[in-house]
Design a protein that fits this description.
Elements lengths: L18 E5 L12 E6 L2 E5 L6 H11 L3 E6 L5 H4 L2 H8 L3 E2 L17 E4 L2 E7 L8 E5 L4 E5 L16 H17 L4 E4 L8 H24 L5 H8 L8 H17 L1
Parallel strand pairs: 3-4, 4-5, 9-10
Antiparallel strand pairs: 1-2, 2-3, 6-7, 7-8, 8-9
Length: 262
C-alpha cells in the first residue's frame, strides 16, 4: 500500500509515502485553497510547482526541507501560479528548473513525455497531458501508486481550457489518464489545487462525463441562437458565480473551436 493519508480540510500537509504538499498562500476562485507545492523524495528531493513568486512561501518550503538537498524543480506547466516562483526558489536552493516549455527552464535539461526522473530511489514518470495548457505534464509515482495532475485534474470542481490549451488535446489527455490510472492501479491523484483525490477512476470518469455534458449544453445553446462565448455562458453557466464567467468564456471559446473543427 502507498500509505496515503488525507487530512480533513486544507490540503496543506497532504501526503503519500514519498510526496508531501505545502500549500501556497494564494487562494482564489481560480486556485481554490492555493497552489499545491509537492515535495518528492527522501533525504534528496525534487520540488514540483514552487507556486507564485511569493517569497514567504518559497522560504517556508526551503526551511521545511531543513538539511534535505533539492536536486531539481519540476513544473507541471508554465502558468504563473505554478511557475512564478521557480527561478527565485532555484536561487535559494541551487537547483535547476525542468519544464516542457524551454521558456521556463533553468539549466540544460527539460521534461518530455516518457522521461523518468529519479530522486533518492523514488521514480517520477512524466506523462504529456496537453489541453489545460499546451505544456501540461502529469507525474506518476509508481512506488506510491499516485499521479500528480497539475491543473489537468483539480481536487474540487473542474479545470478550464486556457487560451494556450485546446479541448481536443484535453479530451485525449483525460482518456489517456483514465486508461493509465486503470492499468497502473492508481490509488490517488495529487492535484495542483485542492485536496487529494482517493478515487482516481471515479474522478476521471466524472471529468470526462462533465466535458461531454458541457459540449451537449453548448450545442443546445447554439440551437437556441447563442453564438458568442458570452451569450453561451449566460445560458450554460447561469448557475455559476459570475466572478467565474470570464474563465468560463475562455473554456467556451475552446469548446466552440473544438465543435467547429469536427
Amino acid at each position: 500500500m502507498s500509505g496515503l493519508h488525507i487530512p480533513i480540510g486544507t490540503p496543506d500537509g497532504s501526503r503519500t509515502t514519498h510526496a508531501e504538499n505545502l500549500l501556497a498562500p494564494n487562494p482564489s476562485a481560480m486556485t481554490l485553497d492555493g497552489t499545491n507545492t509537492w515535495v518528492i523524495g527522501g533525504q534528496e528531493v525534487v520540488v514540483v510547482d514552487p507556486g507564485p513568486d511569493d517569497e514567504s512561501h518559497l522560504r517556508r518550503v526551503r526551511d521545511h526541507l531543513g538539511e534535505r538537498r533539492v536536486t531539481g524543480i519540476l513544473l507541471t506547466h508554465g502558468h504563473f501560479d505554478h511557475s512564478g516562483g521557480a527561478r527565485r526558489f532555484a536561487g535559494m536552493v541551487g537547483a535547476p528548473v525542468r519544464a516542457l516549455d524551454p521558456r521556463h527552464r533553468l539549466g540544460d535539461e527539460g521534461l518530455a513525455d516518457g522521461d523518468v526522473v529519479t530522486v533518492d530511489g523514488v521514480e517520477i514518470h512524466v506523462y504529456g497531458t496537453p489541453g489545460h495548457s499546451f505544456d501540461s505534464l502529469c507525474f506518476w509515482l509508481p512506488q506510491d501508486h499516485a499521479m500528480l495532475t497539475g491543473d489537468t485534474v483539480l481536487g474540487r470542481g473542474t479545470t478550464i481550457v486556457a487560451r494556450d490549451g485546446g479541448l481536443a488535446d484535453y479530451l485525449r489527455s483525460l482518456d489517456r489518464l483514465r486508461a493509465v490510472a486503470e492499468s497502473l492501479e492508481a490509488r490517488a491523484l495529487l492535484p495542483g489545487h485542492g485536496p487529494v483525490l482517493a478515487d482516481p477512476i471515479g474522478a476521471l470518469d466524472g471529468y470526462i462525463a462533465h466535458r461531454r455534458q458541457r459540449l451537449d449544453q453548448i450545442r443546445a445553446a447554439r440551437a437556441r441562437g447563442a453564438r458568442t462565448p458570452r451569450e453561451i455562458v449566460r445560458i450554460v453557466y447561469a448557475d455559476v458565480d459570475r466572478s467565474l464567467w470570464a474563465a468560463a468564456e475562455m473554456s467556451v471559446a475552446a469548446q466552440l473551436d473544438y465543435l467547429d473543427a469536427l
